[in-house]
Amino acid sequence: MALSRLIARPLLASYFLANGAQDLRDAPMLAAQAAPLTEKVAPMVDDATPDKVHVPRDPVVWVRASGVVQIVAGLGLATGRFPRLSSAALVATLAPSTAARHRFWEATDKDVRREQLTHFLKNTALAGGLLIAALDTAGKPGLAWRTRHATHDARREAALVGAKVRARVH
Question: Which InterPro entries match (predicted)?
Answer without folding.
Answer: DoxX (IPR032808), DoxX-like_oxidoreductase (IPR051907)
